[in-house]
Amino acid sequence: MSKRLKSASTAEQCDPLFKALSDGTRRALLEYLVREGEQSVHALTAVSGVSQPMVSRHLGKLRRARLVTARRAGRETYYAARAKGLAPVVQWMAVYGALWSQRFTALEGLGDDASAR
């Protein structure tokens, strides 16, 4: 008997987001953009502690995951966090958060039953 797991469409939308966020440098870059607003690659390189080519690669992965937007101004590229970029992850977590909340409530009820004995 072989069953295959099927992902819901929201879960499938989360895969590229989780992959993009799996790297600490990318998470830090995204967090910085959320806090500070639009930044140039040059500015992000100065605060990241990694080389400009690495910053550009990380930003490319965040862009493909639709977590940031990019715009060119002369020779510089500016990146900004996309507010709606994490929506699929938030929706996915809301579903599983409710499920786990119900399970924890049920477990707490079992503990109350045991202490009543």
UniProtKB/TrEMBL annotation:
GO terms for molecular function: DNA binding; DNA-binding transcription factor activity. The keyword DNA-binding applies. This is ArsR family transcriptional regulator. PROSITE patterns: HTH_ARSR_2. NCBIfam families: HTH_metalloreg (NF033788). SUPFAM superfamilies: Winged helix' DNA-binding domain. InterPro entries: ArsR-like_HTH, HTH_ArsR_DNA-bd_dom, Metal_resp_trans_reg, WH-like_DNA-bd_sf, WH_DNA-bd_sf. Residues 5-101 form the HTH arsR-type domain. Keywords: DNA-binding, Transcription, Transcription regulation.
